[in-house]
Every structure is written in C-alpha cells, then in structure tokens.
C-alpha cells in the first residue's frame, strides 16, 4: 500500500521559493503574475501547514528562519530536479519526432532502401530512420510511419503513392556468364524463390511469357529473395531479378543481365502513409527524399 504524502500544495512551495529567490513579496508577485496579498497569504498558509515560521518578518527585508533555510534547500533542489525532468521529457519528444519507422520486405530494405538512406542521412543528420523488415507483406503497426509495399496499389489501410513499376529480367554474376554463356538457359542452374505472393512470377511464368523453352539443367530453391540474390552474387546460378532489388547491383556490375528479355509482372512499388497522413514532419522529409531518388534513377 502506498502511503499518502502529507505535503503542502505545490503552489505554496513555489510562492515561498519565488519570494526568497526574487528578494521579496513584490518581486515574487510580479514574477508569478498574482497580487502581493495573494503571495503573502500563500506564505501564511504554508507556515500554517508546516506549523512554524519560515520568514522572520521583524527584519527588513524578511530573513529566513532556520526552518526556512531547511525548506528552501529542499524546495530548490526539488524544483531543479522537476525542471531537469521536464527538459528530458521534452528532449524525448523531440527525439521521437525525429525517428521515422518504415516497414518493407527484407529484400527491398536491403537492396533498394538502405543504399538510398546514405544521402538522406547526409542531408538530415538529426533524423533517425528505423527500418522494420518483414518476411511477408509489410503492414502498418502503431509504430510504422511509412510502408513500402509491392502489388496493385488497391489497399485500404493507407494512402498509396506509386514509386515505380517493376520488371523482371534474368541476372547472374559475371562469373556465371563466363561459365555457361549469355542466355544459355539449357546449361544454366536456375535459382528459384518459393513464394505465393501476388504479382510474383517464377521461372515457369517467365518462360511462358517469353516463349522460351523450359529446358534447364538443374534448380536451386530459396525461401526468400535475399538468399537467392546472395546465391546469384556467389555465382551459383541465374535468378529472375527484380529490378528494384537488383538494379543497383547491375549498375555496380556485381550482377549482369543473363538475357535482356524482361517481363512485366503487373505490380508496382508503392509508398504508403497512414490514412490520417504523415504523423510527423520527418516522415514527409523521408517520403520526399524517396520520391526524388525515384525521379533521378
């Protein structure tokens, strides 16, 4: 059981501390924006509550009694601690306003978003971006300020803004091309990603769409696109590369296009905001930065 504190009201303690610090009732009344009689009454009420005199009024100006000095030390220390606590709380609020949480798939976060955060941090060093990776469709949580999602853009849980359309093209490492020859699917090991996501075609869909024969030597299967991408980088075979995730790797020549015959899966990448709009200015700054990255790419 928590015992009740038998303390005087804070306004009485504040009036007492202000009188002593300001040097008198008149100055304290001006600082507190109240009348002088109100300050004098607060002092008397405080003395009545404690049961002893805090000021020796026989002297001009009034001087602290021994009891007054003890109380002033405690009140001043308490006021300082309260002021410090309020400052820390406000700092936490400012810090929270400068943290943007964005949800996306592991692959999108690794290969598309993270490389674009470097320039954002250079321009906005006071903002922290917290990336929340998901294995499935990214969704809004109470903490999420933004979501990057792939699909048709017809979701109802947020406001959708198209970033870019997707296209798929076979990619592999330069080493793999040297081994089997460009576009030679018959000799290539194909890297599959096991997924049931909408607008996420696999190799059979690619061969059907391009009219190419399904002949191939062997397959390797992976649970997500990050694993398949790493396998392609290691020269283990040819993957059906999503440009969003492999575009930078192709520009860096870490991956090459195995056969320049892309297919359009029908989906796009969308930047989503909560239905009520961006919750903080930092979120809009990040959204604007991502729009710019798309525009110049």
Structure report:
The protein is 45% helix and 20% strand. The chain has 297 residues and is α/β, with parallel strands linked by helices. Strand 8, helix 7 (203-210) and strand 9 (218-222) form a beta-alpha-beta unit. The chain contains 10 helices and 12 strands. The longest helix is centred in the first third of the chain and has 32 residues, at 66-97. It has 3 domains: 10-95, Winged helix-like DNA-binding domain superfamily/Winged helix DNA-binding domain (Arc Repressor Mutant, subunit A, Orthogonal Bundle), CATH 1.10.10; 98-165 and 268-296, 3-Layer(aba) Sandwich (D-Maltodextrin-Binding Protein, domain 2); 168-257, D-Maltodextrin-Binding Protein, domain 2 (3-Layer(aba) Sandwich), CATH 3.40.190.
Strand pairing plus helix content: what structural class? alpha/beta
Major sheet characteristics = 5 strands, mixed
Fourth CATH level, the homologous superfamily of the largest domain: Periplasmic binding protein-like II
Largest beta sheet: what is the strand line-up?
4-3-5-12-6
> Within the CATH hierarchy, at the fold level, what is the topology of the largest domain?
D-Maltodextrin-Binding Protein, domain 2
From the spread of the alpha carbons, the general shape counts as rod-shaped
Helix content: 40-55%
Kindly estimate the percentage of residues that lie in beta strands according to DSSP.
15-25%
Overall structural domain count? 3
Summarize model confidence as the mean pLDDT.
Answer: 88
Treating each run of at least 4 consecutive H or I residues as one helix, how many helices? 10
**Global Rg:** 33 Å
Instruction: Give the termini separation.
Output: 64 Å
Q: H/E element string? A: HHHEEHEHEEEEHEHEHEHEEH
In total, how many beta strands? 12
Give the C-level CATH assignment of the largest domain: Alpha Beta
Point out poorly predicted stretches: none
């Amino acid at each position: 059981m928590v015992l009740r504190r038998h303390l005087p009201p804070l306004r009485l303690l504040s009036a007492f501390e202000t009188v002593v610090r300001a040097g008198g009732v008149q100055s304290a009344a001006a600082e507190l924006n109240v009348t002088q009689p109100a300050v004098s009454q607060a002092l008397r009420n405080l003395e009545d509550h404690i049961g002893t005199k805090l000021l020796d009024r026989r002297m001009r100006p009034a001087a602290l009694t021994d009891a007054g000095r003890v109380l002033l030390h405690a009140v001043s220390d308490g006021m300082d601690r309260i002021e410090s606590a309020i400052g820390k709380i406000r700092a936490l609020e400012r810090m929270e306003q400068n943290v943007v949480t964005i949800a996306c798939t592991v692959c999108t976060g690794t290969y598309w978003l993270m490389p674009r955060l470097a320039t954002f941090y250079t321009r906005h060093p006071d903002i922290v971006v917290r990336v929340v990776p998901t294995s499935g469709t990214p969704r809004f949580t109470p903490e999420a300020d933004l979501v990057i999602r792939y699909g048709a853009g017809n979701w109802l849980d947020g406001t959708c803004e198209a970033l870019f359309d997707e296209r798929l093209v076979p990619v592999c490492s330069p080493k793999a091309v040297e081994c089997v020859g460009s576009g030679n699917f018959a000799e290539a090991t194909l890297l599959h990603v096991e997924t049931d996501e909408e607008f996420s075609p696999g190799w059979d869909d690619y061969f059907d769409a391009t009219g190419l024969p399904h002949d191939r030597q062997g397959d390797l299967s992976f649970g997500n696109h990050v694993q398949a991408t790493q396998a392609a980088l290691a020269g283990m075979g040819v993957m059906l590369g999503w440009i969003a995730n492999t575009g930078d790797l192709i520009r860096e020549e870490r991956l090459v296009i195995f056969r320049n015959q892309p297919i359009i899966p029908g989906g796009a990448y969308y930047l989503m905001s909560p239905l009520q709009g961006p919750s903080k200015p930092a979120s809009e700054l990040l959204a604007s930065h991502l729009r710019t990255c798309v525009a110049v790419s």
